[in-house]
Amino acid sequence: MRRLILGHTTEFTLLVVMVLLCTGLSFATDRFLTISNAFDVLNVSAVNIIFAVGLLVVLISGGIDISFAVAASVVQYVTVLALNALGGGNWAEGFIIAGAVGLSLGFVNAFLVWRLNIISIVATISTFNIFFGLLMFFTKGVSIYDLPEWLSTRVVFYEREMSDGSWVELTLPVVVMILCCIATWFMISRTTVGRKLYAFGDNPEGARRFGINIGAMHYISFGWLGLMAGIAGLMQAHYAQEVVPNALYGRELDVLAATVLGGARLGGGKGSVIGCVLGVLMVSITQSGLNLMGVSPFAFKMIVGAIILIAITLSSTRFDKLLPSALRTSTKKGSAQQ
Amino acid sequence: MSSLVRKFNAIFGADMAGPVIAFIAVMLIFGTFADNFLSLATFGSVAFQLPELGLLTLAMLLPLLTGGINLSVTFAANLSGLAAAWVLQAHGGVDAPPSAFLFACLAALATGGAAGAMTGAAIAYTRAHPILVTLSMMIFLRGLGEFLTRGGDVSGFPAYMAPLGHGTLLGLPVPLLIFIVCVGLWHVLLTRTKLGFGLLMIGSNIEAARYSGLNTRKIQVLVYTLSGLMCAVAGIIMLARFNSVRVGHGESYLLITVLAAFLGGINPFGGFGRVLPVFVALIVLQLLSSGLNLLGANQHLATALWGVLMIVVMAARGLFSSYFASLRKKV
Amino acid sequence: MPSAASAKLPWRKEIYVIMSAEPLLSLKNVKVTFGGVRALKGVSFEVNPGEVHCLAGENGCGKSTLIKVITGVYTPESDAELYFDGKPITAMTPTLAQSLGIQVIWQDLALFDEMTVAENIGFQYAVNGKYGLVDKRAIEQAAEKALARLGVEIDLDKPLKELPIAQRQIVAIARALVGEARLVFMDEPTASLTQSETDYLIDIVRNLSASGVAVVFVSHRLAEVLEISDRITVLRDGSLVGVFPVEGMTQSRVTELMTGRNFDSAVIAADHDDKPVVLSVRGLSRAGEFEDVSFDLRRGETLGITGLLGAGRTELALTLFGMHRAQSGEVLIDGKKVDFHSNRDAIRAGVAYLSEDRLSLGLNQPQSIADNLVMASLDRLLSGGLISPSKKADVVSRWISALGVKIGLPEDPIRTLSGGNQQRVAIAKWLAIGPKILILDAPTVGVDVGARAGIFEIVRKLAAEGLSIIVISDEAPEVYFNTDRVIHMVEGRFHATYDPRRLSLTELESAIYA
After folding, report:
1. Poorest-pLDDT segment among A30-39, B3-12, C76-85, C101-110
2. Cα A4–Cα A9–Cα A15 angle in degrees, nearest 5
3. What element of type H or E holds B257?
């Protein structure tokens, strides 16, 4: 148990903070700690969590990507247009098209980082501009409200009316989100590809000496994020029942902040799906709580931004130094410097 | 040919090659395809528009040289501008006396400086990654700004501020003069001060710099504070030019500031770079922007173009450095 | 500390090893040239199965190049011959080398910090699984087997970053075993180990060799080399000097072979009791590093501090330099008590420290020679608050000629200089602050033998001019011939003080390596 905690200090700290937060909020407003609210939060967070698990893979492999939200917007557009051209299509076609377009946009980033040797922050700032500029240019900023029937119909897997009249619903985006989480978790911890990604992010030179294909690492990590972005875009369109070109604009920063909050490290080699989920939920819970407390929406961004700033700064200080010394591992003479 | 290259490098420095080539390319392309490109009107508009981009680039420059980055420059600039705007509003708005303007500037500088100092302290003392810290600061500043302005803009400023944004002095636009002074300051800072020396050393190896007695934490805090102060100056200029302040103004500048720095020969990992090639790079990029305007290019297409340009510049740098490296090996 | 196999296996198996019919690896006439430099000039090399073979030589003698030829990273000129297990190999590649069972454990280990011990050792199974799936059982089993073969116990679930360096090395060796190594190269494996950790590694190597794996040990730590090897191959300047059985070899003989010079230096120790005390240390302690250290250092005196790694020498130096704070005891400089909060305080008080890690801490490698030189003494270049380029150029050229540094241009990056010249610039950097006390930590690491003498000449001159110097080195001859007094530290304590005039080098060496 001690090993479990020590190996995942960030995730456990986050869990503790979240529990405290929920407790605090439940005192602040009695509408907070309800099951329907919990499901609301989950529904709202679904798209961001899908983004987060995609970004996690890129972070683990040692890179960074801030173009995925805009890429998702592009995917939304292209997918809906393609579906309309196909005479409506269905869920299968929707997912396939969205996934394929997302994947190819991810590959563009991989190409820039691997073949042209451009550092990932600069490469993805560039693709962010290219994707967004071209999107706005070709769409002229016009939203699409005319979605295929099946896409705009709410899909509810389970619903129940609560005693107070509110509804608890398990919607498609949440189910897809859970599937994406499981798929990502499986990929990074149970497949050899995933272990290679961790190794590459941890020690690129060591990975190279072991014969790991570096190019493949880039294409897989950015590709996975592209795929997730595509799926997230489709879910966003489904949830909002419309495609708005700049609806997802700015999400990348919130998702990045949440993912790092959840324990992923910018240098690579570290991170977990649970951490991502907790990170995104933390932010969503805070927003939900603030909303229920009647705080102005303009204040949201500021408060959430401040929390993220403090938390990210704190998370860089080693958490295990804050633990009581009984739980700490001993540092012996001759131990490697950190 | 190679002796020509060597002479050029000796006089101007190898990092001038990029901006100069780009300058020639821009002049040729737009001179041919855009009417009235090579005219006083074009250069005039460049002269007036360059300073805001330029000041933000100077703000971005110092963190880049230390191997970091400051993603919050545009929002720090606007928030500083907001601080100045409120002081002016509090003293009568359009009827505010010149003394209020002084206080307004101080307020702006204090805001920018404070944001920068906080960022610098977080980076220096917690060793958090600059991308993350400045990103969070950006989110926070944006949130704060939107909260305080409810997403709108603040306007209505005294008439005596107009010359600051639109006037000329000695034939040159006032903002441009201010910018040139700042370029001069940065040049002296980087080439002749302990701080400038120190920040370059940190950029290439922070631990070695520390072992040699440099106060690396102080330098980092100062770097980001100066960056914040420069953002404040940019904010004041933007206030004067547009006679209003909006939190999101100039958001698109972020990429361009980094582009100008890299085109101007700054090492993306830090440790090496000069102001003058960046200055030339800025002129080139502003000319490019004006040229696109003249061609009637769509604003969004221009955004995409900046992204493509960044890729081209980075790829070109990579190609040239490996070419020159292979040349050197043969000697 | 994990336990090694309790029975120390007999390692003098030379009868089996050397009389064995077929060498495992055999190279003849290997020539490698880089640019205009001939790195290997027709070298031959042989390793027998299960042998512990040492490859000895100075920096730049061609050891690393030879290993890279053997592992297929470099291709030698076509008239070279390479045989493995009796079969000729025409074109060695890294993949082929791995499949033959040739593994290299480089100094940087190339392990993965965030992964567990099991996953690091069984890494091969983590990245090659059926259907692309990770087989956790296979990984654990492989790791257990490898550790058992080495006779070692390490917690398999621990993340690697929590292990001390000595154990990480064992993980690296275990990983090589999983790869079914038959020939393992170890590049300077004891460089960062304490004495007890080194003993432990030596046991591991013996276990390995007893189980049939040949080990080639690249090291310049002659005491260990003599203890563990069956044979020693000495390279000098790209050529083979000879292959020698370890019987009858002494450290000075090996040194002579490696350097091509006779060690007939003279002791320079002298008394300085009439000079004032510059540095006075009393009962200085830092938990886990050193304890109750007391000594005096006089003007113009050169003090040597030696001992094996883990003795606390560098830690002591870092505390004197203000990088760390002592937990008890006091330090007086020129009779006044000092309490440093950072190395800047120390520098202001006149203490200078030349780091043993010249590549990443001692110098700023990508920056210019001039910038490196002035880095600690910028205040002296100011005129009107700004750095004066003429003063800087002046200071730079003065020091470069004073210390005889061979450079191209002062603007060249310092990494273009040789190790010895880099070290001279590093020393100049500290001299430029006008120090009272100069601490040199392992000043000749990575410096060629010819250049080493030059560095110590500088040290002698500085001492004559009144500078107090502390030389930290784990090479007994260095402190023996270049200091007035040698202090031997063992596990954080001052164990004994020696006067080079009153004992022989051999006596000193025995005392240290005992």
Report:
1. A30-39
2. 95
3. helix B253-263
The three-state DSSP-derived secondary structure of C229-249 is: CCEEEEEECCEEEEEEECCCC
Spatial distance between the Cα atoms of C462 and C301, rounded to a whole number of angstroms: 10
CA atoms of C99 and C326, how far apart (whole Å): 52
Q: How many structural domains comprise chain B?
A: 1
Round to whole Å and give the CA distance between C156 and C339. Answer: 44
- Looking up tokens 């500078």 gives C467
Q: Is A312 at the interface with chain B, CB within 8 A?
A: yes
Question: Domain C14-259, CATH 3.40.50.800 — does that match?
Answer: no
- Predicted confidence band of residue C1 (pLDDT cuts 50, 70, 90): very low
Q: What average pLDDT does the structure give for chain C?
A: 86
Predicted complex ipTM: 0.89
By the 8 A CB rule, do A241 and A152 touch? Answer: yes
- Distance, CA of B291 to CA of B286 (rounded, Å): 8
Using CA atoms, how far residue B82 sits from A167, A304, B70, in Å, is 44, 21, 20
Report the predicted TM-score, pTM, of the whole model to 2 decimal places.
Answer: 0.85
Q: Token pair 């900023």 is at which residue?
A: A141
Burial of C231 (0-12, 13-18, 19+ CB in 10 A): buried
- Concatenating the DSSP letter of every residue in B35-52 gives TT-SSHHHHHHHHHHHHH
Question: Residue B261 — pLDDT band, cuts 50, 70, 90?
Answer: very high
Nearest by CB to B307, from A117, A133, A260: name it. Answer: A133
In this complex, how many residue pairs, one in chain A and one in chain B, have their CB atoms less than 8 Å apart?
141
User: In this structure, which long-range contacts are made by residues B178-183, counting pairs with CB atoms below 8 Å and at least 24 apart in sequence?
Assistant: B178/B51, B178/B55, B178/B233, B178/B237, B179/B50, B179/B51, B179/B54, B179/B55, B182/B54, B182/B55, B182/B58, B182/B230, B182/B233, B183/B54, B183/B58, B183/B275, B183/B276, B183/B279
Contact status, residue C373 vs residue C396, Cβ threshold 8 Å = yes
Q: Does C416 touch chain B (CB under 8 A)?
A: no
Residue A304 has pLDDT above 50, yes or no: yes
Query: Å from A292 to nearest chain C CA?
Result: 41
Question: What does pLDDT average to over chain B?
Answer: 89
User: What percent of chain C has pLDDT above 90?
Assistant: 42
CB-CB contact of C264 with C453 (8 Å): no
pLDDT of residue A163 exceeding 90: no
| Domain region containing B246 | 48-251
Mutual orientation of helices B73-90 and B253-263 as an angle, nearest 10°?
130
Q: Considering Cα of B62, then B66, then B67, then B73, what sign does the dihedral take?
A: negative
The residue with greater pLDDT, A55 or C50, is: A55
Packing angle, helices A35-60 and A251-261, rounded to 10:
90
Give the Cα separation of C372 and C416 in Å (integer).
13
Nearest to C343 among B194, B208, B211 (CB): B211
Q: What is the pLDDT of residues C147-167, one digit of tens each?
A: 888 778 888 988 898 888 778
User: Start-end ranges of CATH 3.40.50.300 in chain C?
Assistant: 14-259, 277-513
Give the gap in angstroms from C-alpha C348 to the nearest C-alpha of chain B.
Answer: 9
Fold of C277-513: Rossmann fold (3.40.50)
Contacts of A among chains (3+ CB pairs under 8 A): B, C
